């Protein structure tokens, strides 16, 4: 099985400015993470700039941005808590089209009726939130206090957004004084539309497709979607198997992934007999260099990770898990990452 990055180089064009890991961060540390997202996510900033420019006045701009915040915040919080994930590249294409949309409206001229435009802003906000939630979940969120962390992250996003709007308004007033060309505003919207077209084309046609998942027993294996912080500190877990009522040490799991281990996460709602079956596998002779723990909110009964691939099982499949584990330890890449 191959090992491409979860998000390809092309998709990083609209990558929302999120990188690194969220595992092990306290609630308050999610605030600067949200600020970082906003200030580094040029797609988000460009959309806001287009809306503010099109609004033409602060009161209308504030209303439109509030609508965008409502959509963005709703899907960010709900999708993260529910564990919903979408195709990140498809979301980036939609976000690129949102830039095209605002740019085209600006070139045509300000709407005479703003209701339809406000509903469009709300819809794009919902999509922005879904994309952000998907990437946030990919960082490996702590299981405890998830709601508080997502809210703190969203607070950080809004702080960054307020700062960005203040800067945009200030720059806009300065440019308005310096540039007296009557068509300058339409040209700016034209540039925004062009940026949206370019981004959408790049993402649609030049992003390498992800390899199809491979069947492993009743499970499927695909390039890794794990968000454990490989090489970000931690040590070996205190034990190999963590019970449903315990918390999985995600930082330690990331540490042993870098040492060539296989990490298994199972649904915290897994039936007792299935937990027993998995425990026996992990602590038995077939579970050498395998660690396991519960994952709150995980829909699949089992997910197993090595440094490059993910095994997903709708139900416990000991034979499929053994095939995945044996295949990994036969792979030269299973040697510890220096």
Span between termini:
21 Å
Order of strands, main sheet, comes to 1-2-6-5-3-4
Strand content: 5-15%
Question: What is the number of domains?
Answer: 2
Structural class: alpha+beta
What's the number of extended β-strand segments?
A: 6
By DSSP (H or I, 4+ residues per run), the number of helices equals 10
- Helicity level: 40-55%
Largest sheet: 6 strands, mixed
Question: Shape, please?
Answer: elongated
Mean of pLDDT: 78
CA-atom Rg in angstroms? 23 Å
| Unreliable segments of 5+ consecutive residues | 1-15
User: N-to-C SSE series?
Assistant: HHHHHHHEEHEHEEEH
Transmembrane segments: 39-57, 64-82, 88-107, 114-131, 151-175, 187-206
Pfam families: HupE_UreJ_2
Keywords: Membrane, Transmembrane, Transmembrane helix
InterPro entries: Put_HupE_UreJ
Task: Characterise this structure.
This is HupE/UreJ family protein. InterPro entries: Put_HupE_UreJ. Pfam families: HupE_UreJ_2. It comes from Lentzea kristufekii. Keywords: Membrane, Transmembrane, Transmembrane helix. By secondary structure, the chain is α+β, with helices and mostly antiparallel strands. It has 2 domains: 196 residues, no CATH class; 121 residues, Glutaredoxin (3-Layer(aba) Sandwich). The chain has a 6-stranded mixed sheet with strand order 1-2-6-5-3-4, sandwiched between helices. Strand 1 and strand 2 form a beta hairpin. Helix 2 runs parallel beside helix 4 and helix 4 packs antiparallel against helix 5. The radius of gyration is 23 Å and the shape is elongated. The N terminus is likely disordered.
